[in-house]
Amino acid sequence: MKVPDTRQSIPDFVLQLRQKLPQWAHTDWLEQTGSTNADLFELARQYRTPEHWPRLLGSNHQTQGKGRAGRPWLDRSGETLMFSCGFMLNMPTRLLAGVAPALGIATCEALRPLAGHDIGRLSMKWPNDIMIDDSKLAGILVESRIMGNGIFLVVGMGLNLAGASDLSAELNRDVSDWSSLDGAVAERSRLVAQVAQSWQQCLALHSLAPLQHLRESFELFDYLRNRQVNVLQGDQIQLTGTASGLAEDGSLLVRLADGTMESVRVGDISVRKV
After folding, report:
1. Residue 245 belongs to what domain range?
2. For residue 5, is it within any domain?
């Protein structure tokens, strides 16, 4: 596959994004920033009403990017697609628990039509890591705050465009990249816009019918299904069992050796080698 061209000028790239997202309140892209998630939270302090949202903000390089559990996100110049979207929502706080897997499913739904001949290699590892085969392609970070009578929610994603072999060596674990997919779409603005639109649609549906609209899709994309897994808190194994799908609240169902079912709401999931 042709590697997405990151040499395109930022003004041209922003113009393409705005043409693809005409209903969005604002779309911008920076050469460098600390964290696009943090930048959107700062903007939310200035623009607190729904007409100023949704907004998309991306950056070619982030110096303080992070993943789940506060882990630093390592990006390599020109080889990572990093952006965040901010949404002002009228949603009960009880629904926030299922937002992370819902957005992971929505990301898979957005990327699969762009994955060329390798559409079947894309999947989602609960709660929202995007995988190619057995290696991580993209990570998603969902953060939220109560603002007035609503919820301000930011979704950030880092997707490896290229350089997986070097990054794997640097991280000491296997990762994948978009360029490894045969016939995948190489236009960066199309990738970003497709995912952003899918997130927006997902959140609108989630407010009305939490997870019901995505349960079938989760079964299609579920990387962990029927695999033997360990649930970790830090370096400690909390439980071991068989991944068995998605619960109604968005937690991961794990069947233990005695047949009982546990709902996992937090923690890292590692696949056991058998």
Report:
1. 225-271
2. no
